[in-house]
Amino acid sequence: MKLLDLAKLVGGRVHGETDREIRGIAQADDVRDDEATFVDDPKYWARLAGKNPAVVLTAAYFPDQPVTQIVVADPRLAAVQTALALTPETAEAPGVSPLALVDPTARVSPEATVGAFAYVGPGAEIGPRTVVMPQVYIGPGASVGGGCRLHPGTRIGERCRLGDRVICHHNVSIGADGFGYFRQGDVQVKVPQKGLVVIEDDVEIGANSCIDRATFGRTVIGAGTKIDNLVQIAHNCLIGRRCLVVSQTGLAGSVVVGDDVILAARAAVIPHIRIGRGSVVGANAGVMRDLPADAMVGGIPAKHHMAWKREMVALGRLPEALRELQRLKERVAALESEQ
Questions:
Q1: I need a surface site. Which of 54, 82, 156, 164 has the fewest CB within 10 A?
Q2: Catalytic sites, residue numbers
């Protein structure tokens, strides 16, 4: 793509060369001379020291930077547009591979793609423009909406439902049994897991994440929510719309999460907790009580982030405080010995 064509694509103004060829886009730390990059904060210009990118997408022109720049309203959005233009999705031809196993009672849209060694069970449904890649399992009675992409190793359990434009990356598990047992004497008795999972429209689920079916009723992931790799969501959880759930987060059973919540990496939530709309749970936090709307918490147990920060600062001062206490004890002991 010519640089001038890129400027037209992102709606930007060029400062510098206009006929250079753009072959890719990369982060500032790793950009090559035939690639674009972006700077959405002036401090990141330092990362371009010694590099010669083809062009930098930026929100303002920096005349002291000796590289071609395209000034745009939103450099991050322009970077996304650039990436999509330079590396478009592979278009799979519709149809069912002769190596796939599709039950005669399944309903597969003629516009869908089903890859080799995929399995589509009795009564299952697959919507138009959905791509079922090789080695995907879609259980009996499950339904997958239109425009979805199910990467290899994805498992959609019996009767589970996916909306439109859902993306499941490699080895996602939807609808495995929830972890439910009760003790009877010396035996852990399994609680039957007879509910299902509902994934609403525009949800993306990262590799190796697990969303368990409800004991009774539904486990729900709200529209527009994005789930990272290696996330565990237990039975009967109700996750709101547009949430972000980051890697290695674990939600125990029957947790209710409001809309627009962020759960940072390795957050943990105990059963039956309710997290209010717009809350942010920090990395490694352990949520052990309900949170109101717009809460910002960190630590174990999770508490208001400012209180947690003060505790962390105080903890860092603890060794010196202990040394000072020891010095004071020695002075007191010396004074007492003089009397």
A1: 164
A2: 235
